[in-house]
Amino acid sequence: MLGWLLYILNKHEKFKEARFLVTAIVPYLVVSFVIEVIRLINVDLFNRWHSWTDAIQTFAFIWGIGTWIVTRRQRKELIKARQKAIEEEQNNKVISAMKAQLEIDVAERTAELRKQKEELEITLDELKAAQAQLIQSEKMASLGELTAGIAHEIQNPLNFVNNFSEVNRELITEMKHEIESGNFTEAKDIAKDIEDNEEKINYHGKRADAIVKSMLQHSRSASGKKEPTDINALADEYLRLSYHGLRAKDKSFNAKFETDFDDSIREINIVQQDIGRVLLNLINNAFYSVSEKQRQEIPGYEPTIKVTTRRLGDRFDPDNDRDRVEIRVADNGSGFPKKVLDKIFQPFFTTKPTGLGTGLGLSLSYDIITRGHGGELKVETKEGEGAEFIIILPTQ
Amino acid sequence: MKILVVDDERDIEVLFEQRFRREIKTGEIDFAFAYSGEQALDYLNQHVHEAVLILSDINMPGMSGLELLRHIKQKFSHPPPVVMMITAYGDAENYSQAMRLGADDFLTKPLDFSVLKEKLKEKVQ
């Protein structure tokens, strides 16, 4: 029966906790039972062994208590461990819940950022479009300023073309006449004149052609291609265009212009129409400044513009290819005060009355020179005495 | 008759020589050329009273034709040379200013040479 009881206790989980009771109490019960049996069967033997049985009984009792204490301690530790495990599990649950929430938050935030990024991209595109439009309108505005100059510059060569071709027609009639009269020497002389005139016609035709081409180049959206360019010729061309443009607009205006070109400058690689625009802008500004000063009718004032080019190469190594070219546009106008100096290259800053300047000329020029060509655009000025703009371009 | 032509376009010299080659050949007209107002004044200072007629462009860099006209009318008054102004811009302002400064005539570019010839003959007579 005891064996069966032990088996049941071992087998069933429910009774597992009662197992220690068995281990603790059973020895005492067994010992007490055996002693009782001995007493009933043989009292003498019981009396004789009495001190022994008492000791065994006491021992069994102590065993029982000891087992109970040890088991209790073990159980307490077990409960503690179990609680700890439960706590940990709960913690894990909380952590994974937080993790899930975090992931949702991150996803939301990412979506928000993406949306913002897309919106910014759209805004940027719109700004770029607006900028392109502004640049184009600034180009057209400066083209408008050019028109009169261009008209004058084209009119002159066209007049020559017309005049020389008329002269040639007369000369041909005359030559025919001389041939008919047998004056071949005369006829030959006339033929030579016709030939010379033909050359003039060709020259002035090309001159007009070049002006029209540069005008088209000026208005065209930037192709951005750098080509070897004669910077002296370019500066001269835009100086003339600017001068005649202003003359045509304001008949009372006149100014002296001087050039000092360094012939040792070889062709340099630049975007022609861009640098042309910068030159036109600086020269127009210079003429504007001197014409404004001229209005003040200061005695002895002679409005003067000077365009200078210089090679800033290595003086000791003339073949050094890594040299730079400097173009200076100087005027003896009114200059400008120091406080304005920081702002002049900022977009939409202008000292001209409303409607006369877009305020983009110098800022675009600055962009073209620095970002477009890796050069420098500087200004030196003394208020009341004039201003000098300095372009420095690398030749490579 | 000596005529001083003032224009910053250098080819004007060849053109005039061709256009007036008959008159030059016969010695009717003798041309001198200056390419700026300053040069024209230099010429007039060196060749006093030689040029009886001055044909000047208005739009030149530096001294303009109108300034030249003023100088001529102030300095060279005995006898005053005939001064004809030429301009590419046939505007009223230039015209009135030229006339006020004492210009004898006012022509616009492109020059009509047959008209110019008639005018020159007229002025000489």
Tell me the major beta sheet of chain B.
5 strands, parallel
Order of strands across the widest beta sheet of chain B?
A: 2-1-3-4-5
Shape of chain A: rod-shaped
Note the total helix count of chain B: 6
Topology of this structure?
The complex is a heterodimer of chains A (396) and B (125).
Chain A: H1 2-11, H2 19-41, H3 43-48, H4 50-180, H5 184-219, E1 227-229, H6 231-249, E2 256-260, E3 268-270, H7 272-295, E4 304-311, E5 324-331, H8 338-341, H9 361-373, E6 376-382, E7 386-394
Parallel strand pairs in A: 2-4
Antiparallel strand pairs in A: 1-3, 4-5, 5-7, 6-7
Chain B: E1 2-6, H1 12-19, H2 21-25, E2 30-34, H3 37-46, E3 53-57, H4 65-75, E4 82-87, H5 92-100, E5 105-108, H6 113-124
Parallel strand pairs in B: 1-2, 1-3, 3-4, 4-5
Helix pairs in contact in B: 3-4
Overall description:
The complex is a heterodimer of chains A (396) and B (125). In chain A, 67% of the residues lie in helices and 11% in strands. Chain A has 9 helices and 7 strands. Chain A has helices spanning 2-11, 19-41, 43-48, 50-180, 184-219, 231-249, 272-295, 338-341, 361-373, and strands spanning 227-229, 256-260, 268-270, 304-311, 324-331, 376-382, 386-394. Chain A has a 5-stranded mixed sheet with strand order 2-4-5-7-6, covered by helices on one side. In chain A, a hairpin with a 3-residue loop joins strand 6 and strand 7 (386-394). In chain A, helix 4 runs antiparallel to helix 5 (184-219), helix 4 packs across helix 6 (231-249) and helix 6 crosses helix 7. Chain A is rod-shaped. The mean pLDDT of chain A is 84. With 125 residues, chain B is an alpha/beta fold. Chain B has one domain: Response regulator (Rossmann fold, 3-Layer(aba) Sandwich), CATH 3.40.50. Chain B has helices at 12-19, 21-25, 37-46, 65-75, 92-100, 113-124, and strands spanning 2-6, 30-34, 53-57, 82-87, 105-108. In chain B, helix 4 (65-75) links the parallel strand 3 (53-57) and strand 4 (82-87). Chain B is globular and about 35 Å long. The model of chain B has no long low-confidence stretch (mean pLDDT 86). The chains are: A alpha+beta (396), B alpha/beta (125). Chain A binds chain B through residues 152, 155-156, 158-160, 162-164, 166-167, 171, 193, 196-197, 200, 204, 243-244, 247-248, 251-252, 254-257, and chain B through 9, 11, 14-15, 18-19, 59, 61-62, 64, 67, 88-89, 91, 93-94, 97, 109-111, 113.
